[in-house]
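Folds abound. Consider this:
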Amino acid sequence: MSESESSPIPVGVAEYALSTDEQPLRTSGVGSCVVVAIHDERAAVSGLLHFMLPTENENTTRAPPAKFADSGIDTLLEAFTAEGGHLSRTWSKLAGGAKMLEFDSFDRPIGDRNVDAARSLLEARGIPIRDADVGGTTGRMVTFLPGTGELVIKTASGDRRRY
């Protein structure tokens, strides 16, 4: 199924979705947030997570788990395996983590921290990262095509890349 043959499943900020029929998954407004795409080709299960922050704050109440890298990745993987995905066959791709604002601060930019969190959490779960389109200073729209395993990036500056 090509990108134009099927309407993508929309994934909002602090959300995730699964595709079990090669239907594309799409999210937009990706600045310092990070998008994690996961795929198990043999089970034909894919997932897309759009998270905002690296870790869930214990004081946070009623925030969706997908808002954070740690709880979001765990929630995505739980749903993914419930649909038949096997972590031992799963790979991932990342996008986002841009530096969108300048702050006079000694803290590392949130985009960098989000990318680092995604990388370490996926590594800890044994899920290899096949490709990444991270960093920079422009926003992105991200589409994952389960039929081909491609991650399609459109930037706010008009660039289009495929991974």
Observations:
- The two ends are 17 Å apart (CA to CA).
- The CA atoms of residues 40 and 90 lie 5 Å apart.
